[in-house]
Amino acid sequence: MSEHTGTHRQPAAPVDRDRLTRLLGGPDLAWLVDRVRRRMARDEPLTGPVTLGAPTSGQRAAVEGLLGRAPGAGRALNVRLDAVDAVLRRSGVSPDGLAAAVTALTGPVARLADVREREERAWRDAFDPLDELIPTHRPELADWAERLRGDGLARRLARTPQAAKSLLGDTAEALRRLPAEPAVSLPAFAASTFGDAHALDDGTPLATLVLSGVRALTGFPDGSGAEWRREAWASAGLLKDALSATVLTLCLRGSPALDWSADEGEPAVLTLRQLTRHPPRTAPAVVRVCENPAVLATAADTLGAACPPLVCLQGQPSAAALTLLRHLHAHGTTLRYHGDFDWGGLRIASALLRHVPWHPWRYRATDYRTAVTATPLASPLTGTSTTAGWDPDLPAALTELGVRIEEETVLDDLLADLGQ
């Protein structure tokens, strides 16, 4: 840190350290010395009064000894810095006055303006790893890096410029290696890049920054939750728990295993790992998508190898399901979706629609009304209402009729469509 400069210069005349210590260096005057240092750090003049509330008798006595007079009997203790400066100069204890005395007692005083300037320079330097990465390796991340400078995320995560430079250096190293081709597990990537398989675990500052950069790199949309993070990592070829996320298919082709299953009319279970490493090589014109496994199982039993391509979400769309459906949509496939006619079913359908476009498959208000008419013993509708972006009339119909229609209830209609 630089020494206090300006009007409070370092002493040119010698300070009588022994007398200064006895006069100003005792514990009962520490508060006064501290006030002076703070003023010096802010480049404020050492004039005018300073006040200490509720002083002890020792603090009063110390001020009396310093100034050679009683400081007064008020509830607060007031000391004029001009008077202290004059005593120090006149006595010869510190010929250059109060600033020189405090510096001799406690060491050089750093100017806050200098400290702030150095800190801001250090924060600017902390982003050097991104400045080195972007021009030559990742120019597409320029806007992301600029946002990162401005939104304070790196500062909040790292706390200090030194920690931020290290953190951003690791972030740059990870983004330099992405996307991973072929896809690898997230822990394996972390281990090979940082020597620590847990370096990119959820909640770590490094994972937060790298995932932010991954989304900028791949254009992955905003979201939240564990499933969303799984998909975001997968968009850059990093598989998080890549074997537990699965999707069911029937008569979908494009790999040796899928082709065999389609020829046999048997359902196939695809993992996220398979889909990111070896997605289907072909994409049919139309793929139907259902919510419940019972639909796919019955289609396999009834139609077998004659069934057109069918995908089952098994409830909320998994990372594997979304990866497959995005792949198919990107290669020209039209997706047609059907789910349960209840509030939970509408939420699942809406969640899918936020990630990939689809068209209704017997999943409009008119289809619901027809199903209700054909199902006199349908269960009552429960839960909290929601919207349906593909058919705004559907929530109103559910509210009006007040019953839920599960996919299994309209299974004959769905099988009829598949059998055409």
TrEMBL record:
Source species, domain of life? Bacteria
Q: Where in the sequence is the signal peptide annotated?
A: none
Q: Where is the DUF2399 domain?
A: 269-418
Q: Which residues form the Conserved hypothetical protein CHP02679 N terminus domain?
A: 46-253
Q: Which InterPro entries match?
A: CHP02679, CHP02679_N, DUF2399
- Name the record gives this protein: TIGR02679 family protein
